[in-house]
């Protein structure tokens, strides 16, 4: 799949994602290095949508282990950008980040926790609970049961995102319907 507009080209091929800008700018990375994408709406009428890609490169030199690529998407290419996001999610399990990488990603690409730290602290103090089964998973109404994962506290710390739950349910349904 290829996205192309004035001064920019993005191609998804066998080698991975290739970004090329007019004037010689070029970035290439394997799809497995892409951990998330987000398509952000413009905050002002004179702005374009922005397609963000977040990459991780474990085992590389400090300061080179991550990259965030921001691409301005003209109005006529938004639908195409959404199709690319869907393809990356469906075929390569690249997460779609509905909120985007946040303003701190523009200045510091290797930020482990994005969003408002105060909000995270408040959420930890008052978790949602289900009277019968305990804390609920963030973003879902599914209780945090541990029947399908190892019985350790490490699995409780980070609840799965809604998209991860969808993927898990899809994989489990495929396994249940397979001949093996």
Automatic annotation (TrEMBL):
Residues 96-115, 122-131 have a biased composition (Acidic residues). Residues 96-151 are annotated as: Disordered. This is Uncharacterized protein. It comes from Streptomyces sp. R44. The lineage of its organism: Bacteria, Bacillati, Actinomycetota, Actinomycetes, Kitasatosporales.
């Amino acid at each position: 799949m290829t996205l192309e507009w004035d001064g920019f080209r993005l191609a998804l091929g066998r080698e991975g994602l290739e970004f090329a800008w007019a004037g010689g700018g070029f970035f290439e990375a394997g799809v497995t290095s892409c951990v998330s994408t987000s398509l952000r709406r413009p905050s002002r009428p004179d702005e374009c949508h922005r397609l963000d890609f977040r990459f991780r490169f474990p085992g590389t030199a400090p300061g080179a282990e991550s990259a965030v690529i921001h691409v301005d998407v003209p109005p006529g290419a938004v639908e195409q950008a959404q199709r690319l996001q869907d393809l990356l999610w469906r075929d390569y399990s690249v997460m779609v980040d509905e909120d985007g990488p946040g303003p701190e990603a523009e200045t510091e690409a290797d930020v482990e926790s994005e969003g408002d730290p105060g909000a995270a602290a408040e959420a930890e103090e008052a978790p949602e609970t289900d009277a019968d089964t305990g804390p609920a998973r963030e973003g879902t109404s599914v209780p945090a049961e541990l029947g399908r994962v190892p019985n350790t506290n490490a699995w409780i710390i980070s609840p799965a995102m809604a998209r991860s739950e969808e993927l898990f349910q899809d994989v489990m349904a495929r396994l249940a319907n397979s001949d093996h």
